[in-house]
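Data card: per-record layout.
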Amino acid sequence: MLSEHEIQIRVRYSETDAMGFLHHANYFVYFEEGRTELLRAQGGNYREMEEQGLFMVVVSLECKYRKPARYDDVLSLRTRVVRITLAKIEHAYQITRGGELLTEARSILACVDGSGAVQRLPAIFHPTQ
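The structure for this 129-residue chain is written out next.
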């Protein structure tokens, strides 16, 4: 199982606030993109999971903003798997610009069915399977 993945993101004008900085809420959209691309790089697919009745829900998400990103900046987002249990997965994120750390974050996602009942993570998430 691939435990780390990096993508490049260019900050779009519509993602900035009145001061020209990347709006704080958009970082969370980037983190979701990082998780999605990490899973895709592992050969997984959220759409297929959902078609099978399994959903990944955010249980916890925290973010530390160190320095701002601005319109047209090219950012590197590194997404790393920190911990996996039977039903949850924890990720860590780092956003950098030219090697300079801008943001750090962590999330915990749980696997549930359509009624919200906790389910075992699909095999793609378990490194021994």
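Known properties of this structure: Residues 4-125 form a domain with the Thiol Ester Dehydrase; Chain A fold (CATH 3.10.129.10). The chain is about 20% helix and 40% strand.

See the next section for split statistics.
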